Amino acid sequence: MTNSISTRLAVLGSGPAGYTAAIYAARAGLAPIVIQGIQPGGQLTTTTDVENYPGFRDVIQGPWLMEEMQAQAEHVGTKMVWDHISSVDFSRRPFVLTGDSGTQYHADTVVIATGAQAKWLGLPSEEHMKGRGASACATCDGFFYRGKKVAVIGGGNTAVEEALYLTNHSHDVTLIHRRDSLRAEKILQDRLFANEKIKVVWDSEVVEFVGGGDPETLVGLDIRNKHSGEISRVDCAGAFVAIGHKPATELFQSQLELDDEGYLEVEVGTTRTSIPGVFACGDVMDKIYRQAVTAAGTGCMAALDAEKFLAAEDYQALAAE
Ligand code: NDP
Question: How remote is the CA of residue 263 from the centroid of ligand 1, in Å?
Fold first, then answer.
């Protein structure tokens, strides 16, 4: 027999957005469930030091922050479920979510907080240097390389913004791009080219993240010129891979409106998706800010939007009696 769980609100995903939505929903008396997914805690569980989450003077650890958020959500009345949703049916109410475990979740409202993953180049040396100098977020980690040489890989808005941001900490920023022109907006390009702290290396791909010292940290990137094939070294203590993100939206493709890069579309200024009763928050709907604190902020918005939606429905049902 299929195991079945009914809830007023199901949160999909367990990063800062999902847990914050759960905290607000639980405190509003909705007794939410959080379906945690494959990587409970989300992207922050793979980050180490966090220095920009408000409220903590000292450096805190990403996994610890997520454990605290989970504990707080449980403390106020959230039920955590360790399952991965493999299909959703948003065509009927209550919505039906089916987990890998075989359990069916029937939810009056759903908050999607499945996040996004940074894309990486896929080099074994890059994997090895994660946390030792290879990063996918300059806003998160740039501060750790103050006064040192850094590099950014990519040619879109994110790469250019990260290079500009890094000049707050470093006088020597190298942007490495695989082509001879950037796809970033012109205004950002103008700022980049006008900044004396940044140099751009064109037509080049990274072939190796090079470590050194004990304990081992990043000392440089080996790059190959795409025309000459020549390999050269860019010295740097931090390398920021900024080649795009992939939102976790495969599950919703045929049911909710997505933009052309796969992010969930929401009504401006809200977390309402194209289906009433389904809300989205965090990196799955935000390709610009992508911070733990902004994810938490939109998580709060999603819970408030869901609560308001349910209250309006209850009122209508009462009025119809
Ligand atoms: P983009 O997809 O726009 O750019 C990715 C960049 O990485 C491209 O230059 C691409 O090269 C390069 N790249 C991709 N794969 C590889 C690879 N394997 N090796 C080397 N280089 C690679 O991603 P962004 O994160 O920059 O932006 C995503 C979206 O978010 C965009 O719509 C952007 O406009 C938006 N955004 C908006 C901001 C704002 O408005 N302030 C800030 C940040 C993002 P190539 O050009 O050759 O394809």
Answer: 14
Which atom of ligand 1 lies closest to the CA of 154? Answer: 7
Q: Which residues contact 9 (CB under 8 A, 6 or more apart)?
A: 25, 30, 31, 32, 33, 107, 108, 109, 110, 111, 303, 306, 310
Rounded CA-CA distance 16/183 in Å is 30
pLDDT > 90? residue 128: yes
Question: Can you give the pTM of this predicted structure?
Answer: 0.82
Q: Is 132 in the pocket of ligand 1 (CB under 6 A)?
A: no
- pLDDT at residue 47, as a whole number: 62
Indicate the top mutation candidate among 158, 160, 224 to test ligand 1's pocket, ranked by most ligand atoms within 8 A of CB.
158
Check if CATH label 3.30.43.10 holds for domain 4-117+246-320.
no
Question: Is the CATH number 3.40.50.800 carried by domain 120-241?
Answer: no
